[in-house]
Amino acid sequence: MPIRIDADARRRHIVDAALRLIVGGGSSAATFRKVAAEAQLNIGSVRHYFADHETLVIAVATEVGDRMAGRLTRHPTAPAGDRHAAKRHLLRVLEELVPLDDERQREAIILMEIIAASRLEPAFEPVVRRMAADLRQVLAGALAATGTPAPEHQAVHLAALISGLSLDAVTPHGSVDRATIRAVLEQHVATL
Prior knowledge:
Blueprint: H1 7-25, H2 32-39, H3 43-49, H4 53-72, H5 83-97, H6 102-118, H7 125-145, H8 151-170, H9 178-191
Helix pairs in contact: 1-2, 1-4, 1-6, 2-3, 4-6, 5-7, 5-9, 6-8, 7-8
């Protein structure tokens, strides 16, 4: 009797293996051969689910985005007119988007790798643009609830702050620790 394979579970297993490799060695480390070894599968199994390296890396980026979105939905929006609650909500949203624990640290590394790779790899550009637009939309909505003027403009500012803090947290560029990230976000939200 043939063994039945859960295609979705197998695909997720391959994406998780690629994610670990990208965290450890950048997007170029996620070769089909290395991913197959990491997932303890044969290379044909990886090729069955992903046409090429680019589609695999895009699947990893999409998975990271989905994980972040899932966490964001756990934070209900503040009641209308409650500015203090809206600021607390905004802070919770921001904390989900920066590397404040090991999972978010890995996600930030993945995003940085894919964003950097999109400069030279046109296949990554649409997913990177979509993630940036989604981020700005989430931030603008949370900022609007606080009564912040020009929330779309402020969302760009806040997205840059998140990117900078994340870059400094995952690279030797700034070596910013988690407590400092949290303090910077709290201070920024307090000024709104």
